[in-house]
Amino acid sequence: MSAIAYKRNAANSPNRRLCDIVNFMSNKPVNCRYFYGDYHRGNNKEECRLLAASPSNERPWRRGHCNSCPVPELTRETNCRDLLLEAQVQKRFLNERVVVTFSVCGKHLMDLDDPLHCPECAKEWESIRNSL
After folding, report:
1. Calpha distance 127→122 (Å, rounded)
2. Nearest in space to 34 (alpha carbons), one of 98, 105, 116
3. Cβ(46)–Cβ(63) below 8 Å
4. What residues contact 39, with CB distance under 8 A and at least 6 apart?
5. How many helices (H) and strands (E) does the chain have?
6. Exposed, middle or buried by CB within 10 Å (0-12, 13-18, 19+), for 105?
7. Which of 17, 47, 88, 131 has its CB surrounded by the most CB atoms within 10 Å?
8. Which of 79, 27, 76, 71 is nearest to 51 (CA)?
9. In tens digits, what is the pLDDT along the chain, a chain of 132 residues?
10. Verdict on whether the full-model pTM lies above 0.85
């Protein structure tokens, strides 16, 4: 058997396809503005730019952190369009999780205790709603 035929058969083997399916199923798709993936021409580079920019983060990022990360939900559910976050990976009992450590409204430059709610942005939205 030639080397080309061997590679072709190995790439199409059922075990290879099963491994690809398991890898795909273990990592759900990421819909986050901080996730970066470069898959062009065989590259397989993935990173979390939020954790890379956070000075307090000491643990390395892994793709599995995205599965339980609260940031995509925060950015969808907040009333602040200009939300700026800082996060870090914290070790829990048996696993590691991404935790938001600092949040700021970028428009009003306010520290937010609750990243889901900016009081100034809420007032703006209320005035827009009342003017309609």
Report:
1. 9
2. 98
3. yes
4. 45
5. 5, 5
6. buried
7. 88
8. 71
9. 444 444 444 455 555 555 444 454 556 678 899 999 888 888 888 999 999 998 888 889 998 899 889 999 999 999 999 999 999 999 888 888 999 999 999 999 999 999 999 999 999 999 999 987
10. no
